[in-house]
């Protein structure tokens, strides 16, 4: 989904259906590119799967998906936070990771966020201006924003979304592609370390709050002409690949997410993708979500490790033609010749920083309320909003 509302005209119509990328193709697509990924534990898994796919054609293990703040993952390094500091589930948790390929042609960095806009994010933006400019920024923050910050969290989230998009517009170069990942669908029952016991009353409404938050984030991203990837839509029928905590997803889901994301990026950059034949798509089936999908016969979590990788979605119908013929630029050749001078170096120090379906049981309809305040929760659980610096 890509739209720009400033001129009431679509910015770009995506042409490509999803491609299953091989590691060699990802290496070529992201050759000499600096990728920055910001967000929560879901975004950390996005980072990990991309780092793995840049090196080999294999899936993440369950242990790798669950790990948090480890010193090294698949040749990357923990730069700040995580095990270098204190591991906890508070809003001040920090984790910065970086992967630089041995060839020096790929640089991927991850920042853990507990809020879409904050003083910490301002430090991240300042840090990005000190080093090489990113070519691709992938960002999302939603669950923490809606459950841990303030009595009127939705209103604060909307304000912070506007702030972060304004700041990204100001800081990122025009050549940088920003992709806003919409939050993935939650399960009926939500548990997890980030949801403190005092906040368990929020679990019942958080599922619909995410739908509302996705609406606002996609709209505001479109207002600023940023790209939007609707993960909530793509994974609405994939309940069997969601863990029983109702939040996280297995390695097959994350590889599917990587393919969706890379297809979107390649299309945005005008790179012609390889054409392959794929089997029919079972994702179009209506998959129910009864209680037993989260538990085995003995009340155990389902075993995701033996499942096959997710198949690609079915082909979309061709877009409707424009009323009059418009000149279309020729797509770039599939992965043009690669320059040999590496822009990044594995031993290069980190820049200075001052901070460490339709489904009858899946109801994702927009809540009837807007901007609902959570007025019955104790104020000590939340933090006041951070005001951006004057422009």
From TrEMBL:
Annotated stretches, region: Disordered: 280-332
CDD domains: SGNH_hydrolase_like_5
SUPFAM superfamilies listed in its UniProt record: SGNH hydrolase
Pro residues bias locations: 310-332
Matching InterPro entries: Pced1a_dom (IPR059235)
Family membership noted in the UniProt record: Belongs to the PC-esterase family.
Name of protein: PC-esterase domain-containing protein 1A isoform 1
Source species taxonomy: Eukaryota, Metazoa, Chordata, Craniata, Vertebrata
């Amino acid at each position: 989904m890509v739209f720009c509302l400033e001129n009431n005209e679509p910015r770009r119509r995506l042409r490509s259906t999803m491609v299953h990328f091989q590691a060699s193709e990802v290496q070529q697509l992201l050759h000499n590119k600096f990728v920055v990924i910001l967000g929560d534990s879901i975004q950390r898994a996005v980072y990990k799967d991309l780092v793995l796919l840049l090196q080999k054609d294999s899936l993440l293990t369950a242990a790798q998906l669950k790990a948090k703040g480890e010193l090294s993952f698949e040749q990357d390094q923990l730069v700040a936070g995580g095990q270098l500091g204190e591991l906890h589930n508070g809003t001040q948790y920090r984790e910065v990771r970086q992967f630089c390929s041995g060839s020096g042609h790929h640089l991927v960095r991850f920042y853990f966020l507990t809020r879409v806009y904050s003083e910490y994010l301002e430090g991240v933006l300042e840090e990005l201006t000190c080093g090489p400019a990113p070519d691709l920024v992938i960002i999302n923050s939603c669950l923490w924003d809606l459950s841990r910050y303030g009595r009127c969290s939705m209103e604060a989230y909307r304000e912070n979304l506007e702030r972060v998009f304004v700041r990204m517009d100001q800081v990122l170069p025009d050549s940088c592609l920003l992709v806003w990942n919409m939050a993935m669908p939650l399960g009926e029952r939500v548990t997890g370390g980030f949801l403190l016991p005092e906040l368990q009353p929020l679990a019942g409404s958080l599922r619909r709050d995410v739908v509302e938050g996705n609406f606002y984030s996609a709209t505001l991203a479109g207002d600023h002409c940023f790209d939007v990837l609707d993960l909530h839509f793509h994974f609405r029928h994939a309940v069997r690949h969601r863990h029983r905590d109702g939040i996280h997803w297995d390695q097959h889901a994350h590889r599917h997410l990587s393919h969706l994301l890379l297809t979107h990026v390649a299309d945005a950059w005008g790179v012609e993708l390889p054409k392959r034949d794929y089997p029919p798509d079972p994702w179009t089936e209506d998959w129910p979500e009864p209680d037993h999908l989260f538990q085995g016969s003995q009340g155990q979590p389902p075993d995701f490790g033996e499942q096959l990788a997710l198949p690609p979605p079915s082909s979309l119908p061709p877009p409707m033609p424009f009323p009059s013929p418009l000149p279309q630029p020729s797509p770039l050749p599939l992965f043009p010749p690669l320059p040999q001078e590496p822009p990044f170096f594995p031993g290069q120090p980190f820049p200075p920083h001052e901070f460490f379906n339709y489904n009858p049981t899946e109801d994702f309809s927009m809540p009837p309320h807007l901007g609902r305040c959570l007025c019955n929760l104790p104020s000590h659980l939340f933090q006041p909003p951070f005001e951006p610096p004057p422009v």
